[in-house]
Design a protein that fits this description.
Layout (H helix, E strand, L loop, with lengths): L2 H20 L15 E8 L10 E5 L2 E5 L17 E9 L9 E8 L23
Antiparallel strand pairs: 1-2, 1-4, 2-3, 4-5
Length: 133
């Protein structure tokens, strides 16, 4: 073999190598969110007494929201949970809001048995809500 043939062979092998690397299957994403848009922590019930109060308090991305019900297919029973309850969820803002912090949860999953994205040492306010409206 002459030098020209060796160079062509090396270029063909390099091209095949690049092609094989580019054609690999998509890697499974190790993102713990799976198909969920947000992480959240349900911190308890809103016990305030006012016309627009009530519902469950949830912190999502450092913002506080309230929701009134879970999706029908949800297996979480908030009456028997220990708070804060770390969850991953899909949600939208409520169309008609009274206090402006109401959301509708479309899909939710408890992270009780999974790696928790929240720091447990942070203060959590369950019985009294200490946030600005």
């Amino acid at each position: 073999m002459n030098m020209k043939s060796i160079i062509y062979l090396q270029l063909i092998l390099l091209g095949l190598f690049v092609l094989l690397i580019g054609c690999q299957k998509d890697k499974i994403d190790d993102n713990p969110r799976d198909d969920y848009m947000s992480f959240g922590a349900i911190t308890g019930y809103d016990w305030r007494k006012c016309m627009c109060c009530g519902g469950w308090i949830i912190e999502i991305d450092n913002s506080i929201y309230r929701f009134f019900e879970l999706p029908d297919n949800c297996i979480i029973n908030l009456e028997n949970e220990t708070f804060p309850l770390n969850v991953k969820l899909d949600w939208v803002e409520e169309d008609f809001q009274c206090l402006g912090d109401e959301i509708i949860i479309k899909k939710i999953k408890s992270l009780t048995n999974e790696k928790k994205p929240f720091n447990k040492s942070r203060p959590v306010f369950i019985s009294s809500v200490l946030y600005k409206l």
